Amino acid sequence: MNHKIMKAHITIFLSLVFFSICSGQSWTPPVNVSNMESSSFPDIAIDGNGIIHIVWIAIFENNVRKVMYSYSNDDGETWSIPFDVSQNSEKALWSANIVIGSDGKLYVSYDYDIGNYYETLVHMKIFDGMDWSPTIVVSEGMPHSHSNILVKDFEDRVYVFWFYGYSFCYRYLEGHEWSDVIFPYEEQHTIESAVSDSDNNIHCAGHYTYWGKTVPGVRITYFKYNKSSDVWSDMSIINEDDVNIGVDIDLDNNFLPHILWNKDFTHSSPGIRGHVYCHQIAENIWSEEEFVEFCGPNAFQKIHLNEQGHVNVFLTKEFGEGYEFDHCYKSDDTWSCTRIDSSDNSMILGRPNVDEMEGILYIAYGKCSDRGHCNTCLQSPI
Q: Residue 258 maps to which CATH number?
């Protein structure tokens, strides 16, 4: 498989980046996946046969938003014609996510009818290799459900988390049976990112808001579901600062969590904002907070530990009229960042997403041109 011969062949709003980890990496021009001029917020998954699958949100007339899907079976050189998974022609959809079962089934979840906040529901579609299923209303009877997160463990149990009321809840699909809706914590709390280890435990990062001395503050939290005991852990508080927003999580080869978040360093406006990182050294013991990179008012982040255990951070961020997509890595205890892509348009296209195959990372991200046409792009290292 020659990852260096990738051609720029994919359209709108979804970028994959292929690379092997090394500092100061150079990148090929981006490849476009979607070709729809109005696409954003991609997610990516690679199956056991090396086929790359991507879903994204596409905006149509009257704010109708669809969940689109495309795949590539030649390392991203060419892509299938985008398919409307949602089969939606009147509502606004959001937060499209994809995971793949060991049998090759595709599971796609999304928020349905986000334009009507108090009627929003979480939907799912499943592809069995031949056909897409009818719509499954995961949060049936629970309007005002949103911000879904999709996770699969190594025994093919598929979890769907979402925010409801002032906290989060979830259901899981095991075989052909759905669990009841479960609220793991009584207190108000959110979940923003989750990942399974090979023991099938689910590691999560989220936050809760509290009232400090003068202003509301946010605490970044880590919590874990132990599948064998069916018990959720107590929450660990990661930060001591008053205001932090946005968080992502991944695991190292010892199943220890590494967490990245977007932090406000000042309370004043416009303020100073940047990305910070820490990792768990042992149970309930965390490393010191490390500064990674400054960013603008709108920023999203993704952390990924590759097969060798190297920490990689991917950032989308806004600076004035400009937009950047960066790769940050740690070398000799120092963080360095390389610009992968940029645009004169300041529209932010959400968190980049990552998957890995044979030691190569594939990164999906969104990019807008100076005319506002938004694409999904693919790159590889030179």
A: 2.120.10.10
**Whole domain around residue 169: which residue ranges?**
3-378
| C-beta of residue 205 within 8 angstroms of C-beta of residue 222 | yes
* Range of lowest pLDDT (28-32, 37-41, 69-73, 372-376): 372-376
Q: In angstroms, rounded to a whole number, what is the distance separating the alpha carbons of residues 280 and 203? A: 12
DSSP class of residue 17 equals B
At 59, phi and psi to the nearest 5?
-100, 130
| CA pair distance 138, 150, nearest whole angstrom | 12
Tens-digit pLDDT profile for residues 352-361: 888 998 888 8
Are residues 50 and 69 in contact, defined by beta-carbon separation less than 8 angstroms?
no
Distance CA 40, CA 377 (A): 11
Return the sign of the alpha-carbon dihedral for residues 340, 301, 282, 228: negative
* Sequence-separated contacts (24+) of 213-219 with Cβ below 8 Å: 215/242, 215/243, 215/267, 217/241, 217/242, 217/243, 218/242, 218/243, 218/244, 218/245, 219/244
What's the sign of the alpha-carbon dihedral 121, 70, 302, 317? negative
Number of domain units in the chain:
1
Over residues 214-223, mean pLDDT? 79
Q: Are 220 and 207 in contact (CB under 8 A)?
A: yes
Alpha-carbon gap, residue 99 to 54, rounded angstroms: 10
Q: pLDDT tens digit string along 283-332?
A: 889 999 999 998 877 788 999 999 999 999 998 887 777 778 889 998 88
Amino acid at 291: F
Lowest-pLDDT choice from 211-215, 226-230, 242-246, 252-256: 211-215
For residue 242, CA distances in Å to 189, 209, 214, 265, 267 come to 16, 9, 10, 9, 9
Beta bridge partners of 195: 203
* pLDDT (0 to 100) of residue 201: 98
Three-class SS state of 376:
strand
Does the pTM surpass 0.85? The reply is: yes
